[in-house]
Amino acid sequence: MTQSLSAVVDLDVPGPEISRHLYGHFAEHLGRCIYGGFWVGEDSDVPHEGGIRRDVVDALRAIRIPNLRWPGGCFADEYHWQDGIGPREQRPRMVNTHWGDVEENNHFGTHEFMALCELLGTEPYISANVGSGSVKETSDWVEYLTRAGDSPMARLRAEHGHPDPWNVRFFGIGNEPWGCGGNLRAEQFAPLARQHATYARDHGENRLYRIAAGASDADYAWTETLMKQVSHGLGDREPREIFQAISFHYYTMSGTWSDKGSATRFSRDEYWTTVRRAQHVRELIAGHAAVMDAYDPTKRIGLALDEWGTWWNVEPGTNPGFLHQQNTMRDALVAAIHFAAFHDHADRLRLANIAQTVNVLQAMVLTDGNAMVLTPTYHVFEMSAAHHDGRALAIHPVGEVPTRTVDGVEVPTISTTASAKDGRTTVSVANLDPDAPASLDLSLRGRPAGQVTGRILVADDVAAHNTAASPAAVAPQDYDGARLDGERLALELPPASFVTVTLETA
Ligand code: AHR
Question: What residue stretches are annotated with the Alpha-L-arabinofuranosidase C-terminal domain (predicted)?
């Protein structure tokens, strides 16, 4: 039976801006994300630019990735950046203890990462080592990256071939300090983070946006502890923020941390549990935002969900420490659920990073030697790009919202979001039900709407995925299920599908 939703959207009441940085990405020295994924080295047969894979760069440029977080994750807290500069063969080696216990040769370091960001046309988001690094390392790294002219670190950078400083805005202070980043309590981490953030200086015109590592899931007490310490008062002067944002992490899985569930073989119950848990992100964002509101009602401090996505058992036969997983239509719908929640909280949520870009967790692309495939999640990012920097438009349901009871919780089976930009309105809808079609009847108020075009991502099976042998098993197609009749937009969606339509609403 068709699941139907009626709703109203006021096209002339734009909400907060949806920062493009909600569509950020994450690349850690983990498994085949950096090595083999982004970096193949200058002697590789894989087409590359200065050692960086051309196919991966081209694919990611097409989805306009706004920022890329690096070098971790847990790896960031054992990374000493000076090991990753200078002639590659002379760089010290280390063991990547978190991820596979493999040797890291440090061939991909600061210069390679900044070159990658330039090729991608994306902003770097660098995570400093608070867990095992020193305040001096943090301070020197920022100086190395951003200081012009004559200074010890600027001279060192020039010696290594880059006289000009780079622009770096996003700067992370630690990662998961409650776990791999030092097993600290919030009360221990907060002063440490203040110290690192203080010495992460603004050099010249460069302005850092310092993101203090935050909570896991619903640890609102962590956020509260950081919020209490976010500013330093200067006597009678206006308080200034030491960090500009606080992060949190949330991963979606159908099982438990010890058995997360298979990426491609899952029951309907596991599917619905995944949907329920993905939708939980909305509650988590709201929870952290509510804590922040109590301390910062004018919303100066941003919330950053700088790790999110699905986390499944690794593909059979792969290194358990490499976190390599396939990516199905289910993952695509998880991404759609997250974007709708992000847009609804765009007033506080300023940055988000899916984990991770290539070959690891909920990846955009999977590589195998010379081959590369785009995942269903990639397509949702690409189809959602029109929302970047748009103004959020609230969609108000009228009457009953179709839901399903999952693990005792009522879960909406249709996910909707809309935004306006440059005289156009973009509406994205996901039918989360893999067994029933859905329809959306949307009343468009406040502005005339014309000319609707759209695309759809759909597969016969919610476990469908792309492989080198079948790279377009899940790929967007033109959509003919939209009818615009005056103020009424009707959309028909097949089971387990994601649709984005654009209307002229100037
Ligand atoms: O993304 C994989 C890992 O998940 C990150 O290194 C860590 O921060 C988180 O636990």
Answer: 306-497
